[in-house]
From TrEMBL:
Biotin carboxylation domain location: 117-572
ATP-binding found in the keyword field: yes
Major location (coarse): mitochondrion
Gene3D superfamilies hit by this protein: 2.40.50.100, ATP-grasp fold, B domain
Keyword Metal-binding: no
PROSITE patterns the record matches: ATP_GRASP, BC, BIOTIN, BIOTINYL_LIPOYL, CPSASE_2
SUPFAM superfamilies: Glutathione synthetase ATP-binding domain-like (SSF56059), PreATP-grasp domain (SSF52440), Rudiment single hybrid motif (SSF51246), Single hybrid motif (SSF51230)
Cofactor: biotin
Protein localization: Mitochondrion matrix
Name recorded for this polypeptide: 3-methylcrotonyl-carboxylase
Domain Lipoyl-binding: 753-822
UniProt KW keywords: ATP-binding, Biotin, Ligase, Mitochondrion, Nucleotide-binding, Transit peptide
GO cellular component, one term: mitochondrial matrix
């Protein structure tokens, strides 16, 4: 039995306009075909499809009209996106093609007269990149097919696509990495092309080859280019032959510890271990001293094997002040074989070997050096007969300006929007055009970089805990309004999530990309800072406040010290200890709690009203409530002292808030609430006036805060509620603390024992201790893996392992006790 799943009301509704032919095809499909597509039926024995046919399929009588309309829209859009030069012949070929369908493999032909865009593209990806590709496809009139895992059934890219198909469970290995299922969905839906996005199968040569054999066009380079550039050792040999400089290192086949260690000693430490098929910082380790080499080598090999299926590594000399500079290229297929450099980018500011903020063009480069970089990037593309959008990455010595080839990413990069904004092209549109066999509609002389652009990656992670990835429910999500190219500055948001979605342990923790463009670097950076200020995210921990401090840092503003060691060098500035909440913050938090609790009491017996509406209607009887409030420290193991705050409710919306300080002093603040709204969080506006004229704690008597309440995490034993306040240009977390007896009742640990808990849902990779083991502070206890990255858990202090719950290979949730250890007792 075939199970058809209708869309949610927010998506394109299921319609019968296109249904007859498609339903007939599906209902007559054999069980064996369905088994090949999905490999396994649903629990009830049915196969689940999520179908949303598009009206462009319907009405055979109008096929010619639809085709002409599509061709017109495509020509108009590409002219707008990519410039007019050279497009006339391509546009003419679209109209001449008339109602003829797209011929798979057109990119391999020598004829340009029949080149046209596809009618349907399958996107073999998820999240923001899938949504971004869908956006361009819709503007070009190209229908889209989404694939999704069970965890992504309600995700944004599924809702935006014209058709969507579940391809397996949440784990990437069972869904987004299942090339066979994706190809079968492409066949089933009649998709002529597959766009791989980035990550997953985007640089998988077997996937590219399998698509070609199935008669489906892969939107990317030839399989040969993926193979040669997918191996860091092979790619460096090709680059050296092409005259592109490379970093000294060992790229040999002998992967024994003895040989690798010997080669590292020859180069001299520090050295860089890199997975030959790596990317995104996976399988990459810096080794500063010889005694660290073995442990870091084993870790790099494990990460590489899990992420790429190949644990082979290479060793390179590590430059002490390296800049990460790259060049965006776009190439057309033979016989055109155009190779164009669009713009340089700087991605030097990184954490955990992963980019966090990118900009275009790369700052503080002479015009001669910029041209040299772009020339070498074009030579790299030409050396492998490249086709499509790609990025040539260089590592540059920040002190000398010398640069070396690092790798070539044979796909669209995460940071491609900054190149789009400074050049005015749509790279996805050009990818579709090139994959259709057409020449590029511009030459190198047509490329003019205008203004400056930044991209900030908004991640679910904890900067204070070495940027440990975080997961959780996005309870509140607010981005700044997007603006268009016509204004002096541009704000663009690329995201694949909405309020109410979850950041999953199974995938990359990026929430969104915030991209800005302005006339120069200084203006663009100020615009980025403002856009970050207007961003509010409540749920998992994020790097938003960290990015604000980065934008404010003098060394980043000047761009004189950009290199991959930037964050480590300025760690104290970028990751300061979280200050105790100010009086205005505590006052707002207490006022919110008092308003809400009073209103809840007043509304209990009445009709359904908002809490604040009920407060306005309640009898204005004097009342008081006391709360214990505590700011969130920079580390989860630290706790700030709590403050007792009393809220006195008076007549007419007037309150007095009393703060009881550590030294016994009491500060009283008179508060008049002026407005309250609750569309996105609770927006509280109030006038605050200290009753003591000598108290200068309030620079402005009028204050406005957005407050979002939420439950604390499962291991917050003494916390009954958590408030996120957006105030004073930052996000401040306030714990509402339970009385001491409540914490004791919840089983708070005694001082003689301590436990180590899992910081997030993860997999236990290795357990280094056993019951009875004596450990010192800093000893490795457990190695965890989350989001394809290993995380080492170390002992916070000396002790003896009392109980051990962690087992290698085990999947565990957040807050699970891994190791319980106690102080060593004297015999």
């Amino acid at each position: 039995m075939l199970h058809l799943t209708k869309r949610a009301a927010t998506a394109r509704p299921y319609t019968s306009i296109n249904a007859p032919a498609l339903r007939s095809q599906l209902h007559t499909a054999s069980a064996s075909l369905l088994e090949r597509v999905f490999n396994a039926p649903q629990r009830d024995g049915t196969y689940a499809f999520d179908l949303a046919p598009t009206p462009t399929h319907c009405c055979s009588d109008g096929a010619a009209v639809a085709s002409k309309t599509l061709a017109f829209r495509q020509r108009k859009r590409i002219l707008t996106l990519a410039g007019k030069r050279g497009l006339s012949s391509v546009a003419t070929s679209h109209s001449q093609a008339g109602a003829e369908g797209f011929v798979p493999g057109a990119s391999d032909t020598t004829s340009t007269n029949t080149a046209r865009l596809p009618s349907k593209v399958l996107i073999a990806n998820r999240g923001e990149i899938a949504c971004r590709i869908i956006k361009t496809c819709k503007e070009l009139g190209v229908r889209t097919v989404a694939v999704y895992s069970e965890a992504d059934a309600k995700s944004l890219h599924v809702q935006l696509a014209d058709e969507a198909y579940c391809i397996g469970p949440a784990a990437s290995s069972d869904s987004y990495l299942r090339a066979d299922r994706i190809i079968n969905v492409a066949k089933l839906t009649g998709a002529e092309m597959v766009h791989p996005g980035y990550g997953f199968l985007s640089e998988n040569s077997d996937f590219s080859l399998a698509l070609s054999e199935a008669g489906i066009t892969f939107i990317g380079p030839p399989t040969s280019a993926i193979i040669s550039m997918g191996s860091k050792s092979a790619s460096k040999a090709i680059m050296l032959a092409a005259g592109v400089p490379c970093v000294p290192g060992y790229h040999g086949d002998d992967q024994s510890y003895e040989r690798l260690s010997q080669e590292a000693k020859k180069m001299g430490f520090p050295v860089l271990i890199k997975a030959v098929k790596g990317g995104g910082g996976k399988g990459m380790k810096i080794v500063w001293h010889e005694n660290e080499f073995e442990e870091q080598l084993l870790s790099a090999k494990r990460e590489a094997e899990k992420s790429f299926g190949d644990g082979t590594v290479l060793i390179e000399k590590y430059l002490l002040k390296p800049r990460h500079v790259e060049v965006q290229i776009i190439s057309s297929a033979p016989p055109h074989s155009q190779h164009i450099a669009l713009s340089s980018r700087d991605c030097s500011v990184q954490r955990r070997h992963q980019k966090i903020i990118e900009e275009a063009p790369a700052p503080n480069l002479s015009e001669e050096l910029r041209r040299d970089l772009e020339s070498k990037a074009v030579e790299a593309a030409r050396a492998v007969d490249y086709v499509g959008a790609g990025t040539v990455e260089f590592i540059m010595d920040a002190t000398t300006g010398e640069f070396y080839f690092m790798e070539m990413n044979t796909r669209l990069q995460v940071e491609h929007p900054v190149s789009e904004l400074v050049t005015g092209v749509d790279l996805v549109a050009l990818q579709l055009l090139v994959a259709s066999g057409a020449p590029l509609p511009l030459s190198q002389e047509d490329v003019h970089v205008k203004g400056h652009a930044f991209e900030a990656r908004l991640y679910a992670e904890d900067p204070a805990s070495n940027f440990l990835p975080d997961v959780g429910h996005l309870q509140h999500l607010h981005f700044p309004a997007e603006s268009s190219i016509g204004s002096d500055s541009v704000v663009r948001i690329d995201t694949g999530v909405r309020s109410g979605d979850d950041v999953s342990v199974f995938y990359d923790p990026m929430i969104a990309k915030l991209i800005v463009h302005a006339k120069d670097r200084g203006t663009a950076l100020r615009r980025l800072r403002l856009a970050l200020e207007q961003t509010r995210i409540v749920g998992p921990k994020t790097n938003v406040d960290f990015l604000k401090r980065l934008c404010d840092h003098p060394a980043f503003i000047s761009a004189d010290e950009l290199d991959t060691g930037f964050i480590a060098r300025y760690k104290a500035d970028l990751l300061p200890a979280v200050p105790r909440p100010s009086k205005s913050v505590l006052t707002c938090a207490a006022l919110y709690l008092g308003l809400r609790d009073s209103a809840t009491s007043a509304a209990n017996a009445g009709p359904t009203l908002s809490a604040f509406q009920a407060l306005r209607l309640s009898a204005a009887q004097p009342a008081s409530r006391t709360y214990l409030l505590r700011g969130r420290a920079s580390s989860g193991s630290e706790k700030q002292p709590h403050v007792s705050v009393r809220v006195l409710q008076e007549q007419g919306g007037v309150f007095t808030v009393q703060l009881h300080e550590d030294d016994g002093a009491i500060s009283s603040i008179r508060c008049i609430t002026t407005s309250i709204a609750g569309s996105e969080g609770e927006v509280l506006s109030a006038e605050l006036a200290p009753t003591d004229a000598a108290d200068a704690a309030f620079p402005s008597p009028r204050i406005q805060a957005t407050i979002v309440p939420r439950r604390p995490s499962s291991n917050a034993l003494d916390t009954v509620e958590r408030l996120d306040l957006f105030l004073e240009d930052r996000q401040i977390e306030i714990d509402v603390v339970a009385p001491a007896w409540v914490a004791e009742l919840r089983g708070a640990l005694t001082e003689s024992k301590a436990s180590v808990k899992s910081p997030m849902p993860c997999k236990v990779v290795d357990v280094r201790v056993q019951v009875g083991s004596k450990v010192e502070a800093g000893d490795v206890l457990v190695v965890l893996e989350a989001m394809k990255t290993e995380h080492v858990v170390r002992a916070p202090r000396a002790g003896v392992v009392a109980t051990l719950a962690a087992k290698a290979g085990q999947m565990i949730g957040e807050g699970v006790e891994l190791v319980l250890f106690e102080e060593e007792t004297a015999e």
